[in-house]
Write a structure and sequence with these properties.
Structural class: alpha+beta
Number of helices: 8
Largest sheet: 5 strands, antiparallel
Oligomer: single chain
CATH superfamily of the largest domain: FAD/NAD-linked reductase, C-terminal dimerisation domain
Strand order of the largest sheet: 10-11-14-13-12
CATH class of the largest domain: Alpha Beta
Order of helices and strands: EHEHEEEEEEEHEEHEHEEHHH
CATH topology of the largest domain: Enolase-like, domain 1
């Protein structure tokens, strides 16, 4: 299988089909896999996928004019985005996984005065109100993360607003994101690059799973946890995990960010041993160069 697009959906399919025993090639137009994740996470996933035998072509695309049907399937060229480099690839099937779009055309939204669309997405405020009185929108048709738990949270905020409960608004920067490939990826908040672009002086701390006793016990030692913090205040701006049960480790940094907490406060909270959440306290300690079990 050749998969076009190495975002969350593409790498999930690539990981699953490789586990099924398929030969898998990933083709990504941008310069790294999972390009919306922290660059260190992309680098680690690239390393592990290659170790698993998954072929990866970044800064590349399929030359659609070169696609030919053969007795065994398909033959085509993967072309570099810049330069003349081309690689011939054979596959049984090509899976296109280059993103999703809202299906809002032709259902009458354009006829509602006051409702605004942007590339098919319904514009809403932080309480999920549209520009039309009494009309709310949630989920995959509004800007933000197209994730089930995000839509569920948006629905609660919308309904409580309708009921006059004055809920906290939806804060997209606090929405956890999980990519269910192997190794799993979990993240919340800003990447290191995004934090710098936003004008923060940044301090980061990382800790590898291979230095963790529980990771050795469960036999899954690839990956790491990383905190991105504001150097002046210590506040956590983002958290990024790649490794075993990464998504299960997100609630602690999500809550810390909700409470405007710092890496130092996570470092002060005692984590039971041997457990996977220890990777978080060690990464928090590493922000100030104080990780213990390195």
């Amino acid at each position: 299988m050749t998969i076009v697009g190495a975002g969350a959906i593409g790498v999930e399919w690539a990981s699953m089909y490789r586990d099924f025993g398929s030969e898998v090639t990933l083709v990504e137009f941008l310069d790294r896999v999972v390009p919306l994740e922290d660059a260190d996470v992309s680098k680690e996933l690239n390393r592990i996928f290659r170790k698993r035998g998954i072929g990866i072509h970044t800064s590349s695309t399929i030359d659609t004019d070169s696609i030919q049907r053969t007795d065994g399937g398909l033959k085509f060229a993967v072309a570099a985005r810049e330069g003349d480099k081309r690689t011939d690839v054979e596959a049984d099937i090509i899976l296109v996984a280059v993103g999703r779009r809202p299906l809002t055309e032709g259902i009458g939204l354009e006829e509602l005065g006051g409702l605004e669309l942007d590339r098919g997405y319904v514009k809403v405020d932080e309480y999920m109100r549209t520009g039309v009185e009494h009309l709310y929108a949630i989920g995959d048709i509004v800007p933000g993360y197209a994730l089930a738990h995000v839509a569920a949270h948006e629905s609660v905020v919308a309904v409580e607003t309708i009921a006059g409960k004055n809920p906290e608004p939806v804060k997209m920067q606090l929405m956890p994101r999980v990519t269910f490939c192997r190794p799993q990826i979990g993240s919340v908040g800003m990447t290191e690059a995004e934090a710098k672009e936003a004008g923060h002086e940044v301090k980061t701390g990382s800790f590898p799973f291979r230095a963790l006793g529980k990771a050795t016990i469960v036999g899954d030692i690839d990956g790491f946890a990383k905190f991105v913090t504001d150097a002046a205040t210590g506040r956590i701006l983002g958290a990024h995990v790649i490794g075993p049960h990464a998504g299960d480790l997100l609630p602690e940094p999500v809550f810390a960010m909700l409470a405007e907490g710092t890496a130092e406060e996570i470092a002060m909270s005692v984590h039971a041993h041997p457990t996977l959440p220890e990777v978080l306290v060690e990464a928090a300690l590493a922000v100030d160069g104080a990780a213990v079990h390195v």
